[in-house]
Amino acid sequence: MSTEIPAHPAIWSRLQTERQSGRLPHALLFVGAAGLGKAATAWQLAERILGRELRVTPADELPKDTFYLADEADFFRVSPQGSEIKISQIRAVEKALSRTHTGARVVILQAVDRLNVTAANALLKTLEEPPENTYFILLAQSDAGLLPTIRSRVVRYAFTAYDARTFAAWLATKQRSAKEARMLFAVSEGNPGLAVALLQGDLKASADAALTFFETLGASATPYLDLSALWQAHERAELSIYIHWLEWVAHDLAILITTNDATLLRLPFAENRLRKITADWDATTILEVTPILREALRANELYMATKLIGDMVILELNTLAERSRHANRSRSTF
User: Fold this and answer.
1) CB neighbours of 29 closer than 8 A, spacing ≥ 6?
2) What does the entry list under GO cellular component (predicted)?
3) Neighbouring-strand partners of residue 44
4) Rounded Cα distance, 138 and 152, in Å
C-alpha cells in the first residue's frame, strides 16, 4: 500500500521481530492519535502476512448497505457505518470467516473505539473463539471506551509521536530542509500525518488565518459574525488543521504570558503579532483555550456539524476573552 504516512518505525520493528520469531499475536490493538501511522502499519503487516499487495486501502469509502470491504477471500476491512460499527457488520464478517479457506486471513477493524455495545459483545465472542490462522488488527485513537474483556483478548501497541531524530530522518526522504524539519516537528509535535497535511497547504497562510481569529476575538465589535465567517471558510477536511493552528497560537500565547520565553514558541516568525494579542488575555483564561479546541477536534472527528462546532468554539472563546479583558481592566484600576 502506498501512503504518505509511513508505518510507525518502532512499532514496525517490534512486529517484524515477533513475526520472524513466530510470536505474532492473532489479535492486535493499535492505539494512538490520528496521523501516527496505525493504518499504514496495519496494511503493511497484512500484506506481509498474506504475501501480496492489497487493493483495498484505508481511505476507500464503505458503500451504503455494505458491511465491509473485501480483497479476495483473505482480507476484510470493517469501518464505521455512519457514526458507529454495527453488529450487522461483525456478523457479516463472522459469516465470511466461517467459509472454508486455505492459508492466512486478516481482518482490520478501523475506529474500533466506535463499536456500539452489541457489536462489541459480538466481536468479543469472535476474539474468544478465533478462526484458525486468522489475524485481527484493531485500530483506535483511544481504547478507554473498549470493553475490558476485549482489551484482555488483544495485545496492545501504543503509537506515539516521533522523536526529533526520527522525524527529521523521515522528512529528509521528502527533500525537506533541516530548518523545515525543526519547525514542522515543533508545530506537529512529531506527528507525521499532521506534518503531511501541513505540507499540503501554505504554512504562513494557515498561521495567518489562526492569528487573525485571535486578533478578531480581541478587536471586533461583532465577534460572532466575523469569527463565523472565518470559521465557515474551512471545509470539514481542512477544519482539523485549522483547529490545530488555533491550538498552536493558544500554546504560544500561553508561553509568552506565563514565561515570556520566546525560544519556546512553535511559531517564532509570528512573535510580534502574538505579543500584541497577549494584551487581551491573562494567564488563567488562556490556559482554558486548549481544552475547548481539543473538544472541537474530537467533535470534528465524530462528524458533528461544522457550524455547530464553530458556534461552540466561538461562543466559549469569546466568553473567555471577555472575562480576560474584564480581569485585566480590574487589575489596571488598582
Assistant:
1) 112, 138, 140, 143, 146, 151, 154, 155, 156, 157
2) DNA polymerase III complex
3) none
4) 13
Q: Which residue has the cell 474468544?
A: 128
Which residues are paired to 109 by β-bridges? Answer: 78, 138
CA 81 to chain centre: 19
Closest CA to 183 of 193, 173, 175, 195: 195
- Which of the two residues, 63 and 126, has the higher pLDDT score? 126
At residue 1, does pLDDT exceed 60?
no
Please write down the HEC assignment for all residues of 61-95: CCCCCCCCEEECCCEEEECCECCEECHHHHHHHHH
**Residue with cell string 483478548:** 153
Long-range CB pairs of 233-237 (<8 Å, 24+ gap) are: 233/209, 234/306, 235/306, 236/300, 236/303, 236/306
Does the pLDDT at position 176 exceed 80? Answer: no
Predicted confidence band of residue 331 (pLDDT cuts 50, 70, 90): low
* 49 vs 229, residue with greater confidence: 49
Q: In what order do the strands lie in the sheet with 134-140?
A: 69-71, 75-78, 105-109, 134-140, 27-31, 155-158
Please tell me the pTM assigned to this model. Answer: 0.76
DSSP characters over 186-235: HHHTT-HHHHHHHHTS-HHHHHHHHHHHHHHHHH-SSHHHHHHHHHTTS-
**Residue 61: pLDDT over 90:** no
Q: Which residue has 486548549 as its cell numbers?
A: 290
Name the DSSP letter for residue 262: G
The single residue listed with the C-alpha cell 489562526 is 210
All domains of the chain in start order, with CATH: 9-158 (3.40.50.300), 201-333 (1.20.272)
Taking a C-beta distance cutoff of 8 angstroms, is the pair 195, 168 a contact?
no
Query: What is the CA 293 to chain-centroid distance, rounded?
Result: 13
Q: For residue 8, what are the CA distances in angstroms to 17, 156, 166?
A: 14, 14, 10
The amino acid at 217 = L
